[in-house]
Write a structure and sequence with these properties.
The complex is a heterodimer.
Chain A (H helix, E strand, L loop, with lengths): L1 E5 L3 H13 L3 E5 L2 H10 L4 E4 L8 H10 L6 E5 L4 H9 L4 E4 L4 H15 L6 E4 L2 E4 L4 E4 L2 E3 L3 H12 L7 H8 L8 H15 L5 E3 L3 E3 L2
Parallel strand pairs in A: 1-2, 1-3, 3-4, 4-5
Antiparallel strand pairs in A: 6-7, 7-8, 8-9, 10-11
Chain B lengths: L1 H55 L9 E3 L11 E6 L5 E5 L8 H4 L5 E6 L3 E10 L5 E8 L1 H49 L17 H49 L5 H30 L8 E4 H18 L3 E7 L3 E4 L1 H17 L6 E9 L2 E8 L6 H4 L10 H4 L9 H11 L2 E8 L3 E9 L3
Parallel strand pairs in B: 1-3, 8-10
Antiparallel strand pairs in B: 2-3, 2-6, 4-5, 5-6, 7-9, 10-11, 11-13, 12-13
Helix pairs in contact in B: 1-3, 4-5, 6-7, 7-10
The chains are: A alpha/beta, B alpha+beta.
C-alpha cells in the first residue's frame, strides 16, 4: 500500500512516516500544501493523509482541487480541527475519513486499512484463489489451509496485484507502489520477489508477460 | 417578586395619602367659600330689605305696634322685620312674619350684621340699621338660615360620599398605570432570569414606546452583547489554546504509542524520551506565555518609577545566551537614560517579546540593533534584525492571537503566536503604538512609541 502524507509539522510527519512504514506501508511525504498537491497529481497513491492547516495551500483547498481534477485517491484528513462543521466540510468536500489530533496510532492504521479495503480491494478483506487464501486484515496468506510466511514486500506485491486483479501491472507501477520516491530500486528486486512468491505459492498464481509486467487472473 | 409588589404598594400608599390631603384641603376651602357666599347673599338681601323699610317707614302716631306688610318681591323669605324705638328699645312696628325672638338684645352688640344661634329656630342672620328720621330707632331685619344650612349640609354629605369614591377611582387608575409601567419591568426581570452564560444569544424584545423602559431594555441588551463578546473572546482563547496544545500532544501520544507497539532497542527509547521532553518544554513555554497574556489585565494599576535603559539592558543580558546560540550580534545603536512611571511587568513583557522575536527570526550570524531614545514627547524603542522578514499579507495579522505566518509555523522556531499579542495588549494598556517595517528575506524593523506622560 502506498501512502502520501501531507503534514507541515516535522515531528508529526516523521512520526507518521516511521509508524506507517513499520506497518509495511510505503510512505511519501510533503511538508507544505503545494508540494503535497503536486505529488498527489503526478503519482499514484492508495491513500492520502492530509492535514488541514498547511503553509502555501490548505488541506481543504488541496482536497477540493484534487476532486475537481477528478483525482479520486481516497483522502483521510488528519487535523487538529475538531469542530463538527470542519468535519462535515471535510467529508462533504470528498474526504473519505476524518481523524482529529491527537490521534490513536492503532485507530489511524485501522482506518487506513479500512479505506484501502473499500477502495482498492472493493470491500473484501479476504480473497480466495484456488487453494490460496489472502487475508488483508491479518496479513496472513494460507496455502491449503497452512500459513505461508511472506516478507512485507512480498505481501505488498501480492496485495498490489490482487488490488489490480485481472489487469496487467508494469514493473514501473510496482516500483512506484512498493518503494517511496527517494529509495533506489534495482529492477532485479522485483524479479526476485516474483521468484520467491512462485516458490511459496505455486507457479500458476502470478502470471507474467515478457517485458511488460505481471498479473493475477 | 415581593419587592415589585412592595414598590407598587408604596407608590399607591403615598399617592392615596397625597390625594386625600389635597381633597380635604380643597373641599374645606370650597365648602367654606360656598358657605360665606351663601351668607353674603343673605346679608345683601337683608340690607336691601332694611333700606326698603327705612325709605318707606312711617311711624305710627299712636302707641301701638303697627304691622309692616311683607312684600312678595323680597329676595328672601321669610324675613322678619321689626322697628325699635331708640328711647326704650321697644318694638314700634313689626312684620307678620315676626317670630317671638328677642331681637332687641342684639342691637347692643353694635354690629350691623350678625349670625346668632336660637334654640328654637336654629341659626338666624340679623341685619341692623340705625334710623334718625322720622324717629330715632333701629330697623332690625332677620331671617332664619335653616334652608341654607340644609343646602350646605346636603353639599357636605355629598362631599363625604363623593370624595372617597373619587379617591378610589384615582387609585384604581393609578394602579392600572403602575401595572403598565411595572409589567415591562417584570418582563425584563423574566428575560434576565432566563439569560445564562451558555445562552447569551437572547435579547429582550425592544418595546415600541420610546420611553425610559425602552432605554432600560436597550441598556440591558447592550450589556448582554458586551458580555457575549467577552465570553466569546474567552471561548476563542480556550479553543485557540487547546488547538495549539494538540500538536505537541499529538507528537507525545504518537511517539509513545509507536514505541510501545513492539520491543525496541535502547537508542530508540532514548530518542522518544528526548522528543517527548522537547514537546513538554514547548508546552511549558506556551503555558508561560498564556499566563503572561492573561496577567496583563491585572497589571494595570501598579506603577513604579522605572529606568527604562536599565530594564532594557537586563532583558538583553537575559536573552543573550539565545543570541549566542545562533551566533547573533546584539548592538546598541542609541541608548538614552529614560525615567518613566509605568508598570514594570508590562514594560518587561514588551522588551522581552520584541527582542526574543528578533532573535527567533534572525538567520545565523545576523545582527540585531537596538535603540531607546526620546523624541518629541515620545519614548521610541526600536529593534532592527537581519532576519527572515515578514510577508506583506502577514503584517496586519501580526498582533492577532495565535497568528503565525507560514515561516513561523516551523516549530523549530519556538513560538505560539502569543508574543506580539502580549506586546499589543501591553501597549494598549500604557498608550503605546507598534509599527513594523519589513523586507522579506532581509529583515524587520519594529518601532514602538510610548507617550511620555510626565
Amino acid at each position: 500500500m502506498k501512502l502520501l502524507v501531507i503534514e507541515d509539522d516535522e515531528a508529526i510527519l516523521s512520526l507518521l512516516k516511521r509508524g506507517l512504514e513499520e506497518e509495511g506501508m510505503v510512505v511519501d511525504t510533503a511538508a507544505n500544501g503545494e508540494d503535497g498537491e503536486y505529488l498527489a497529481e503526478v503519482n499514484h497513491y492508495d491513500i492520502i493523509i492530509l492535514d488541514w492547516m498547511l503553509p502555501e495551500k490548505s488541506g481543504i483547498d488541496i482536497l477540493k482541487d484534487l476532486r475537481s481534477k477528478d483525482i479520486k485517491t481516497p483522502v483521510l484528513m488528519l487535523t487538529a480541527k475538531d469542530a463538527m462543521e470542519n468535519k462535515l466540510e471535510g467529508l462533504n468536500e470528498g474526504a473519505d475519513d476524518y481523524l482529529t489530533k491527537p490521534f490513536n496510532f492503532d485507530e489511524l492504521i485501522a482506518r487506513i486499512n479500512a479505506i484501502y479495503r473499500r477502495s482498492a480491494l472493493k470491500g473484501s478483506d479476504k480473497i480466495v484463489i484456488d487453494d490460496i487464501e489472502v487475508d488483508f486484515e491479518s496479513k496472513l496468506v494460507k496455502k491449503n489451509g497452512e500459513i505461508v510466511n511472506l516478507t512485507a514486500k512480498e505481501f505488498e506485491f501480492l496485495e498490489f496485484l490482487l488490488a489490480n486483479r485481472g489487469s496487467l501491472v508494469s514493473t514501473e507501477m510496482i516500483q512506484d507502489q512498493l518503494w517511496n520516491s527517494e529509495e533506489f530500486v534495482n529492477s532485479n528486486v522485483i524479479q526476485v520477489i516474483v521468484y520467491r512468491l512462485r516458490n511459496k505459492l505455486g507457479k500458476d498464481l502470478i502470471k507474467s508477460k515478457r517485458n511488460m509486467g505481471y498479473f493475477i487472473e | 417578586m415581593n419587592n415589585k409588589e412592595n414598590l407598587k404598594k408604596i407608590v399607591l400608599w403615598w399617592l392615596g395619602t397625597f390625594i386625600a390631603l389635597i381633597l380635604i384641603v380643597f373641599n374645606t376651602i370650597f365648602y367654606q367659600t360656598l358657605k360665606y357666599s351663601f351668607y353674603d347673599r343673605v346679608k345683601n338681601s337683608l340690607i336691601l330689605v332694611s333700606h326698603n323699610i327705612k325709605d318707606n317707614f312711617t311711624p305710627p302716631s299712636i302707641n301701638k305696634i303697627v304691622t309692616i306688610p311683607s312684600k312678595l318681591d323680597y329676595p328672601i323669605s321669610p324675613v322678619m322685620i321689626a322697628v325699635f324705638g331708640s328711647k326704650n328699645m321697644k318694638i314700634i312696628a313689626k312684620s307678620i312674619t315676626f317670630m317671638d325672638i328677642n331681637l332687641g338684645k342684639y342691637i347692643k352688640e353694635n354690629q350691623e350684621f350678625l349670625i346668632v344661634h336660637n334654640k328654637r329656630y336654629g341659626k338666624i342672620a340679623i341685619y341692623i340699621i340705625k334710623i334718625v328720621a322720622p324717629i330715632k330707632g333701629y330697623i332690625v331685619v332677620a331671617t332664619p338660615l335653616y334652608r341654607i344650612d340644609l343646602k350646605l349640609q346636603d353639599i357636605f354629605i355629598k362631599m363625604i360620599i363623593l370624595n372617597p369614591i373619587l379617591l378610589i377611582l384615582l387609585l384604581l387608575g393609578a394602579n392600572m398605570i403602575l401595572d403598565r409601567v411595572l409589567n415591562p419591568i417584570k418582563e425584563i426581570t423574566k428575560a434576565a432570569n432566563e439569560i445564562s452564560v451558555g445562552d447569551l444569544d437572547r435579547i429582550i424584545p425592544i418595546p415600541l414606546q420610546n420611553d425610559e423602559i425602552k432605554d432600560l431594555v436597550l441598556a440591558f441588551n447592550s450589556m448582554v452583547i458586551r458580555l457575549r463578546n467577552g465570553i466569546d473572546m474567552i471561548h476563542r482563547f480556550n479553543s485557540d489554546v487547546s488547538h495549539e496544545l494538540r500538536t505537541p500532544l499529538t507528537v507525545l501520544k504518537g511517539e509513545i504509542q509507536l514505541a510501545l507497539r513492539k520491543d525496541r532497542d535502547k537508542e530508540y527509547y532514548k530518542d522518544v524520551l528526548k522528543k517527548s521532553l522537547k514537546e513538554i518544554d514547548y508546552m511549558i513555554d506556551m503555558v508561560e506565555e498564556m499566563l503572561m497574556f492573561s496577567k496583563i489585565d491585572s497589571e494595570v494599576e501598579q506603577k513604579e518609577n522605572l529606568n527604562l535603559d536599565e530594564l532594557l539592558l537586563k532583558v538583553v543580558s537575559k536573552l543573550s545566551f539565545k543570541a549566542k546560540h545562533k551566533n547573533l550580534k546584539i548592538e546598541f545603536e542609541k541608548i538614552e537614560p529614560i525615567k518613566i512611571k509605568s508598570n514594570p511587568f508590562l514594560i518587561n513583557a514588551i522588551f522581552i517579546n520584541i527582542i526574543d522575536n528578533a532573535i527567533k527570526y534572525s538567520k545565523e550570524n545576523g545582527v540585531i540593533k537596538i535603540s531607546l531614545y526620546k523624541d518629541d514627547g515620545n519614548i521610541i524603542f526600536e529593534v532592527m534584525d537581519t532576519g527572515v522578514g515578514i510577508k506583506k499579507e502577514d503584517l496586519e495579522h501580526l498582533t492577532e492571537r495565535f497568528y503565525r505566518s507560514d515561516i513561523s509555523r516551523n516549530r523549530d522556531i519556538k513560538g505560539f503566536g502569543l508574543g506580539l499579542s502580549i506586546v499589543k495588549k501591553a501597549l494598549d494598556t500604557i498608550d503605546g503604538k507598534i509599527k513594523f517595517d519589513s523586507i522579506l528575506g532581509k529583515g524587520t524593523i519594529v518601532t514602538i512609541k510610548i507617550k511620555d506622560k510626565k
